[in-house]
Amino acid sequence: MKLSFILLFCVLSVYSKTFLYFHGGPGGNSLPEQNLLAEKFKGKGHKIVFWNEISKVRDEGYKFTKEYAFKKNLHSAREFLLKNHHDDEVYLIGHSFGAHYVLDLARQFPQFVAANLLIGPVLDTTQTDKLIVEFNLNTLDKDSEAHKAMEKVAANYDEELEKSRAMIYQTAFTNPAFVPAYFNSPDKLQAYFAYLTGAYAFDLEVLVDVRASINPAFYRRRPTTVPTLALFGSKDHVSQIDSQRYVLESQFADIEMREVLNQKHFYHLEDFDGFYSEVSNFIAY
Fold first, then answer.
1. How distant is the alpha carbon of residue 178 from its chain centre?
2. What is the DSSP string of 131-177?
């Protein structure tokens, strides 16, 4: 009995891993994932720790400033990694816009990162903005003022996309079809957004401010060589493998991209077992 316990302890010690989770957004946080994912990783024998971006209303260690919002988030994510790696390699999970923080950490601290795991990555934000415009065009009343505004943007992306970002996102989040499209299951959608209330409510202004504060030079720095897996849902309306491929391949030198049939943007929450199987197979090599 004692020998069996020792062997079990050794097996868990060898295979137990630490995952650091970087949520999407901007304007979001990891509270839903903390409640919906933590126990599932624990049940697999692993530890997962969740990062939160800087907030206007919560104390996340930094004061939110519009002009330096993205830069401060980068510093916050770096401190988070340094606090949680414990002299061992960790696995970085980046959902949606969280791919930015994973990329930065893998560049800065490759010695601490065993692998990057991206879910519905939004690294090419311009391509995602175009997908959102297209979604609005396909789902809004064609006679509405909102639809006409989207038509104007789509007719001249080069000039209209940047200056219309706030309007595009405001239109999307008031479009009754947009948020439900993130999930296949209405129950999973409700479970997720049940946690985004009060100080943890989604903040559209932060989304716009963080996006506007990104220095384009961020996308021109050296790529990381840390092994990376990027998973895309085939029904994802904001992140598609073909539209993200160019930027991902330019920034992640060793990347494998897979499309998961019939999944949407929150694949890891809707089908955890399928997601975990993909991750396990990847990090086993």
1. 17
2. HHHHHHHHHS-TTSHHHHHHHHHHHTHHHHTTTTHHHHHHHHHHSTT
Q: Is 61 left (phi over 0), alpha (psi -120 to 50) or beta?
A: left
Count Cβ atoms below 10 Å from residue 177 Cβ, excluding itself: 13
Superfamily assignment of 16-125+185-283 in CATH?
Alpha/Beta hydrolase fold, catalytic domain (3.40.50.1820)
How far is 53 from 186, CA to CA, in rounded Å?
26
Tokens of 190: 């409700």
Closest to 41 in 3D by CA, of 219, 285, 268, 284: 268
Q: What is the pLDDT of residues 58-76, one digit of tens each?
A: 888 888 999 999 999 999 9
The Cα 100–Cα 218 span in angstroms is: 9
8 Å CB contact between 46 and 17: yes
Among candidates 17, 207, 228, which has minimal Cα distance to 107?
228
Question: pLDDT of 206-219, one tens digit each?
Answer: 999 999 999 999 99
Quick one: which of 216, 227, 94 has its CA closest to 162?
216
The answer to whether 174 touches 204, Cβ cutoff 8 Å, is no
Output the pLDDT for position 284. Answer: 81
Q: Rounded CA gap, 163 and 159, in Å? A: 8
**Would you list the domain boundaries of the chain?**
16-125+185-283
Q: Give, to the nearest 10 degrees, the angle between helix 31-43 and helix 186-193.
A: 110
Closest to 218 measured CA to CA, from 85, 91, 123, 96: 123
pLDDT at 195: 98
